[in-house]
Specification:
The protein is of the alpha+beta class and 167 residues long. It is built from four helices and five strands.
């Protein structure tokens, strides 16, 4: 999505931020921002820079939700940011809840996950944080309509498939 490798064949680490918001219709919407990790910078710093968040903000939740490798050799570190600090910018409605899955137990990486599936995975992760992390819960509960939305999602950390949780 716009970030090119610096030299052919080099592995590049890319931070991908999914800025999430409650849309006017009551659903979720997101926009995608990408930046390359360079010069020993920490991916968290790159993610904050992409969405223009100060390090000490208490009004936004920025959380790493997954990573994946793409065919070009890039490693994408995905972060969710909510609420979107720029709700004036165009966002895409999140209309799918299906997750991308690998071919089998020893092949965890799915072939070509769509960005909507990555966003759905991030939302499930946020639902998990809402139930398990007091700091994340404070931000999530501050966003009008977000708890109602997250309540309808299966809360799960990265890698946990729906229906496999044990109580």
């Amino acid at each position: 999505m716009g970030v090119q490798q610096e030299r052919a064949g080099d592995s590049v680490v890319v931070v991908e931020v999914l800025a999430l918001r409650v849309a006017d219709d009551g659903g979720l919407a997101f926009r995608v921002l990408e930046g390359v990790v360079r010069g020993g910078r920490h991916p968290d710093a790159v993610a904050r820079e992409l969405v223009e968040l100060p390090r000490d903000t208490a009004a936004h939740l920025l959380h790493s939700t997954s990573w994946r490798h793409d065919p070009s050799g890039r490693v994408l570190l995905t972060y969710a940011c909510c609420p979107d600090p720029r709700p004036d910018l165009r966002a895409v409605p999140l209309t799918v809840r299906t997750l991308a899955r690998g071919a089998g137990p020893a092949s965890p990486s799915p072939d070509g996950p769509r960005i909507e599936q990555v966003a759905a995975h991030a939302v499930r992760h946020l639902a998990f944080l809402w139930h398990t992390d007091a700091v994340a819960r404070q931000v999530i509960e501050w966003v009008p309509g977000l708890t109602r939305i997250l309540d309808s999602w299966t809360p799960a950390p990265a890698g946990q498939l729906p229906g496999l949780a044990r109580v």
